[in-house]
Design goal:
globular; binds magnesium ion; single chain; four-stranded mixed sheet; 11 strands; binds adenosine-5'-diphosphate; alpha+beta
Amino acid sequence: MGEFDLIETFFRRPPGVGPHRAVVGNGDDCAVIAPAPGMQLAISTDTLVEGRHFLSTVSPARLGHKALAVNLSDLAACGASPLGFTLALTLPRVDEAWLRGFAKGLFDLADEHNCELIGGDTTAGPLAIGITVFGEVPAGQALLRSGARAGDDVWVSGHPGEARLALEAFRGTLHPSLDAGQFDQARLAMERPDPRVALGVGLRGVASSAIDVSDGLLGDLGHVLQRSQVGAALFVDEFPVSPCLQARSRDEQLNCILAGGDDYELVFTAPPSARARVAQLGANLGLLLTRVGCIEAEPGLRLWRGGMDAGSAVREPVPNRWTSFDHFKGAAT
Ligand code: ADP
Ligand code: MG
């Protein structure tokens, strides 16, 4: 099977199958897309490289899912709704069973978000998947990293830490190891993350800033603090602990929650006046949203033990020894 047969067979969908929203879709020299009047385009790119971003043991369907999910997560963090995406695929060989699985995982998630594959590129080489997503957001309403203000609350979605737990399980560093149920839950978080697109859209006009957790919660929040020129106090005991993490030592729990990446949950800030709206949004989406700290004028990140609203007398500082993942510093994940 040659390059063009491959594209035609696996990545061009006939009329009636999946969304066809583009003015000019897949198959010409360029795709042409038009955001709705009053909307701005939001664009993001992410590449997944074998051995670096995924283990060779992952199923092709989950890989297809994840490659798009990490990109949709960036749209979510900006409050944008998906329009379409391009796919740059580098393959060591043409393996039809692999391609069928990959395309299934990819298109299942794409269809769930009404996001059309509008073009791409196909080459031979070490396995790598580059996706660029295009979304739309009402003019001026994109959620940015730079909008956090002193006095805002810090919120987190879902149960961060599960993906890191799975990675440690694959690395064989967990003693005792996970039982089957815990492992399945953690593995699902790592291989099949659910991009928080509806949350991001719901946070338009509510959140003051947002970011998705890809490299580690503290490090990613650090980007918000830096861009907003503020600091934060986080209360480690406020973080939700996933059922699969419950049996781990407190040290392991905090390491997974605070330093673990690959969760694709959102961390966002909002003024205290928005608490009821945030709670309502979480209830509407059936998604856990937890207030874990507050933004402060003093730069830097301070970690505390003790209840957030219990007053300063019972607070105890926690030394921050957690670093997030950096491709040019850390070990491969
Ligand atoms: P060109 O040479 O003009 O850049 P290509 O020959 O690379 O175009 O691709 C032909 C068409 O197939 C283009 O519309 C391109 O967007 C699309 N395409 C190529 N690879 C993929 C892919 N992996 N997924 C989806 N569309 C693809
Ligand atoms: Mg061309």
